[in-house]
Design brief:
This protein has 148 residues and is mostly helical. 81% of the residues lie in helices and 0% in strands. The protein contains five helices and no strands. The structure holds fe (ii) ion.
Amino acid sequence: MHFQWTHDLDTGIPEIDEQNRRVADFINALDEARQTADRERVGEVLEHLLDFVCNHFMFEEQLMEKAGYEFLSAHERIHEVFAKRLADFRGRYAKGEDVTEQLLTMLQNWVEIHIKEEDKRYADSVQQVIADEGGRTWVTGLVKKLFG
Ligand SMILES: [Fe+2]
């Protein structure tokens, strides 16, 4: 299984799409670790994923807030639940459990449901506030701040 990003997953916001594409990389890295039964690698991917997701959610939430997106709090809640589930996986992994299969399923569902459906809903309102020069400068600054 190799997960291939397709354009129907794009929101049209370049910074968001670049970040969402990284989820595909995580899926492939995990799948590779699963195939080679590399437990240590699973732990590494999980750590990177947690770190990435935290910054990515902050990024998205600030964009939605700037846009005055009306379903911001519902979207934040979905992020919160996802982050908590990831943290649970980390805890179970630390106790010696093999969480690879379940984690892969959760990430695949995340792409299908969250990226493909829920992220797209804020795209129009966010596009409007980042289209002009001031908005572009603000987004670039935010990317630097959160992702270095
Ligand atoms: Fe999101």
